[in-house]
Write a structure and sequence with these properties.
alpha/beta; Signal recognition particle alu RNA binding heterodimer, srp9/1; Rossmann fold; Helicase, Ruva Protein, domain 3; 4 domains; six-stranded mixed β-sheet; four-stranded mixed β-sheet; 21 helices; 13 strands; about 10% strand; elongated
Length: about 600
């Protein structure tokens, strides 16, 4: 490992001290006696002075010593009139210069020290401490050595399948000999794909921690610069350093910032990003897998990556790090619960059921929110009520009890939310209603109906999708039945219901009129829904039929919601009255309303 010597200011101070010692030693070899000016006058009167040289302030000369030899001397001149007067009164006098020896030394030492200090500061800024001109071509990776990574597989839960795929990478980094003996070749690159927050970066660090090798961590955007050629230079420098520390792992987060497919966008083929990508492809082709350098990367947009990156010999293996299922969420919660003081009888299974679709990052935030609520309530342990409140806070937003709502609007909100709940409970295949609240939350929510699925779902039937649309429209249907009018409170419900209907018609082929056909303008991202853009590739007549079909689905399900609530109007009225009284009702109270009506 190359040693780096740091320059210190003490070196400068020691050098100045040595120079002063040498200077004083040399000057002692040429001794010049300094005599007072009065003494000089006496020596002149007694014929002891043999030679003088007069300057403006000093007199240098030679005088006869006691042994008869000549000796050099110097004295500072004094005004002749003053010297005559002092001589008459036999006063010993001498001349002195304004500046002392120390001042003379400091007059040339301080500027040098200041210049050297400024010069060192500028050089450091340019060469190492912060990116500057001298380090533009250096990579910006953060290097974790073997003893700096304390993350292991036990710290990463909910991604068991992904961990199994990475066991071979760890085995190769620990013992590459058995792979070489059989002629096997470990994958050069491993690409982790999945939604944001699922633990891709932590999983890569866990691989390095389990393997006990250095870990180079950087982002795809670290290579992109405004100066042409710098990104490619940083890629070269990264692989050079990695080979010196092999075996090791290079991890590039957000690979899509660097590896977007060439030709996309308005830029030409020679822009900086594409040159950097070309250099990365070249480096991945050039390094020997037997060296022990494993390239790992993570992205949540694999659909936009350049196909050349994903071919065999580069990123050979693609590993999905998906949202955890119920068992995975329970395992993740257990990991995070180790860091807080939780209640012993905490129902983790129920928490796992209440958090469908949440990622590892979401669950970590959930546990932290629950702990903060317990501290705010001055509790010694975090209990189930705090976790339920944290789930509502994450899903629906922060409660705003101070938001003033008039009685008429409270009544509208209560009937609206009860309409959602009654329709959801009346239809098969819908998620059970867990809680209803008319306390405002978040930015615009004046109330909410919380539905908790009993199990994770990956497929939904046409009937189940229609029932979801009906549940979403139940709030507006309740307003029309009770008040004979509708309000703006259903805008979010209408948006979600319309999205489901659009997907049924254009993507899922669930339209009886249009048939089994895919009509979406373009495919959406696998893990990030950036929306669809661009014109559709079907005729205007087909577009009109699509719009009509979407409108018909919404209208039909709205009629279903009106029919259900008309039959159960008494439950709607009693439930709305209970909500206005208590502001929150849970599942048991909702079920009791239905049993009382039966």
């Amino acid at each position: 490992m190359e040693k780096r010597y740091k320059f210190s200011l003490w070196y400068i101070l020691i050098g100045i001290w040595v120079v002063l010692i040498i200077q004083s030693y040399i000057s002692s070899m040429f001794v010049v006696e300094t005599v007072p000016y009065s003494r000089f006058l006496e020596l002149v009167k007694t014929d002891k002075v043999t030679e003088v040289a007069i300057s403006q302030n000093e007199i240098h000369g030679k005088l006869l010593a006691k042994d008869g030899h000549e000796q050099k001397f110097k004295t500072v001149r004094v005004d002749p009139e003053i010297s005559d007067m002092l001589d008459d009164y036999h006063v010993t006098f001498k001349g002195e210069e304004d500046s002392s020896y120390v001042q003379n030394v400091l007059s040339w030492v301080l500027p040098i020290v200041l210049f050297v200090g400024v010069w060192l500061f500028v050089i450091r800024r340019m060469s190492g401490q912060q990116p500057g001109f001298m380090s533009l071509g250096k990579n910006k990776s953060k290097i974790y050595m073997e003893d700096e990574l304390n993350i292991r597989f036990d710290d990463v839960a909910g991604v068991d399948e992904a961990k199994q795929e990475l066991v071979e990478i760890i085995d190769f980094l620990k013992n590459s000999g058995k792979f070489v003996e059989l002629g096997g070749r470990i994958p050069k690159g491993v690409l982790l794909v999945g939604p944001p927050g699922t633990g891709k970066t932590m999983l890569a660090k866990a691989v390095a921690g389990e393997s006990g090798v250095p870990f180079f961590s950087l982002s795809g955007s670290d290579f992109v610069e405004m100066f042409v050629g710098l990104g490619a230079a940083r890629v070269r420098d990264l692989f050079v350093q990695a080979k010196k520390k092999a075996p090791c792992i290079i991890f590039i987060d957000e690979l899509d910032a660097l590896g977007k497919a060439r030709g996309l966008g308005n830029t030409g083929g020679h822009d900086e990003r594409e040159q950097t990508l070309n250099q990365l492809l070249t480096e991945m082709d050039g390094f020997d897998p037997k060296v022990g350098v494993i390239l790992m990367a993570a992205t949540n947009r694999p659909e936009i990556l350049d196909p050349a990156l994903l071919r065999p010999g580069r990123f050979d293996r693609t590993i999905l790090v998906d949202r955890p299922d119920k068992a995975g969420r329970m395992a993740i919660l257990k990991v995070h619960l180790k860091n807080i003081k939780a209640d012993e009888n905490l129902d983790i299974r129920r928490l796992g059921s209440m958090t469908p679709g949440m990622t590892g990052a979401d669950l970590a935030n959930l546990v932290n929110e629950a702990a903060l609520l317990a501290v705010r309530r001055r509790l010694k342990r975090v209990g189930m009520p705090e976790f339920e409140e944290a789930v509502e806070r994450v899903v629906a937003g922060l409660e705003k009890k101070n938001r003033l709502i008039n009685e008429k609007e409270r009544e509208i909100v209560a009937n609206h939310e009860m309409g959602h709940a009654i329709v959801a409970l009346s239809l098969p295949g819908t998620d059970p209603v867990h809680k209803i609240s008319i306390i405002p939350r978040g930015i615009a929510a004046l109330g909410y109906t919380m539905q908790v699925p009993t199990q994770d779902r990956f497929l939904l039937s046409r009937t189940e999708l229609l029932n979801r649309i009906t549940s979403l429209l139940g709030g507006r249907a309740a307003e029309e039945i009770v008040f004979g009018d509708i309000s703006t409170g259903a805008h979010n419900d209408l948006s979600r219901a319309t999205d489901i209907a659009k997907s049924m018609v254009r993507e899922y082929g669930m339209s009886e009129k249009l048939g089994q056909i895919y009509l979406a303008p373009e495919k959406r991202g696998q893990f990030i829904d950036a929306g669809s853009s661009g014109p559709h590739d079907y005729s205007e007549e087909t577009a009109r039929e699509v719009d009509d079909e979407i409108r018909q689905i919404i209208q039909d399900q709205y009629e279903v919601a009106l029919s259900i609530l008309s039959e159960k109007k008494d439950i709607l009225e009693r439930g709305a009255g209970l909500l206005l009284e208590k502001e929150k009702i849970d599942r048991e109270e909702i079920e009791s309303l239905f049993h009382a009506a039966a």
